[in-house]
Design brief:
By secondary structure, this protein is of the alpha+beta class. The protein is built from 5 helices and 7 strands. It has a 5-stranded antiparallel beta sheet with strand order 3-2-5-6-7. Helix 1 packs across helix 2.
Length: 125
């Protein structure tokens, strides 16, 4: 390993910055077109330098925008990973964060757990 790094593979940086849990997940995301480096699709071996912008689409449709502040190839604590990037992701709207539970008409379909208990209580079980 070199003493000071000026660039590193994007999949390795995403793993070190704790954007993905494993390096293989980061590599798969790059191959799947979920990672953009400076507004261009990034393959896993694409080199990242300080000052680059990375846009990552995470599961459940979340999108993160990161500016690379430092290049590191070791995965450490969350505090150490936070030094590697500046998060430019706009905050989520409060409405998007609070999803309402699915609703259904009473009596339609199979009874819920609460309805089943109420029925059993009425029958005297």
């Amino acid at each position: 390993m070199r003493g000071s790094l000026d660039s590193i593979r994007v999949d390795k940086w995403l793993w070190a910055a704790r954007v993905f849990k494993t390096r293989s997940l980061a590599s798969t995301a790059c191959d799947g077109g979920k990672v953009d480096l400076n507004d261009e699709a990034a393959k896993p071996a694409k080199r990242v330098r300080a000052g680059d912008f990375i846009k990552v689409t995470l599961p459940r449709g979340r999108r993160r925008i990161l500016r690379v502040a430092a290049v590191g190839d070791r995965r450490g604590s969350a505090e150490a990973a936070r030094v590697l990037y500046e998060d430019l992701t706009p905050p989520e709207s409060p409405r998007a964060r609070q999803a309402r539970p699915p609703s259904r008409e009473p009596g339609a379909g199979r009874p819920t757990k609460r309805e089943r208990r109420d029925i059993e209580r009425l029958r005297g079980r």
